[in-house]
Write a structure and sequence with these properties.
This protein has 351 residues and is mainly beta. Helix content is 9%, strand content 22%. Strands 1, 7, 8, 10, 11 and 15 form a 6-stranded antiparallel sheet that branches. A 5-stranded antiparallel sheet has the order 2-3-4-17-9, with no helix packed on it. The longest helix is centred in the N-terminal third of the chain and has 14 residues.
Amino acid sequence: MRQWASLAAAVALLANGAVAQNMLRFACSQLVVDRVDPLVNPGQRYTPHLHQIVGGNSFNLTMTPVEHDLAKLSTCTSCTFAQDKSNYWTAVMFFKAKNGSYHRVPQVGNGGPQGQLVNKGGLDVYYIPSGKVTAFKPGFRMLAGDATNTDDNKVSKGNICHRCWTSTNENNFVGGAPCTGSDTVAIPQDTKCKMIRQTIIFPACWDGKNLDSPDHKSHVAYGQGSGATGGGACPSTHPVKLPQVMYELMWDVSSFADRSIWPDSGPAFIYSMNLGYVGSAAHGDYLFGWEGDSLQKAMDNGCNLNRDCPAAGLTAQSPDVYSACTVKQQAPEPVDGWLKALPMGDMPMKA
């Protein structure tokens, strides 16, 4: 029966185009949980909200475009492929208890028809090609989503979404392709959810000129359509087709299933921005840092999932190796256990 369920899920994904061709899909363990943001708030310590970061260990307060060569400056990466020294980060999900204290929601690996991914916290990254694509250039960076948005209606559910996972087994696949079906922009607020999967899909069209833009968005654009399809046809203003980058995070909310500790009103699961910013404020940051032309070769040679790909020179590290790549907080503060307040403004205190 379980085999049939897995087959049905795989067919559903194929029908939605998510696994219709080869793509990179790999785990990244947590490099650090820290209140820094070299993309939006370069040089600032204790930025407005907390992030969880993965990737190359040259991650720093200030990473000047091009000048800061992630591939050369990083001595290890918390991602599967040794050649990928990019940095990827998102906001952090917290549980707010009835007594007003907060607890960071832990993360686990991801499963599904393509196989299990193992990480220590962190997230999973996809590079999905659609036909011939042009890999990112050194110094390229971009942002998906808006940390200040409080309106779910201003978010395309086909690009940023959440899914209620009713099992603590991430391999017990739920639903179809990412950001389809019953997926929601809002974070599910239901005790039946044992895990909550968050998906962030980045634009896959580039203007072909700028490695960044003042808002970290204008140099890229979404193509026609939405979802994890590799992106549709690009607009004339952004004619260069990029690999579609997608983040998946599995937030393990199973330890917060006791409804008696939930707040009497308002959401229980929120992101690290503030009380009013839930699913609508979900966002992801991306700084390209693949070695040489390894990503271009990976796309050209159909490298698949999280496996070695000799044609592109890609080598997959074992989970114990990439999980050992960590850095210390650059804005030191407690982020684990019960906190009296979200990590915002002054350093938070333990509850």
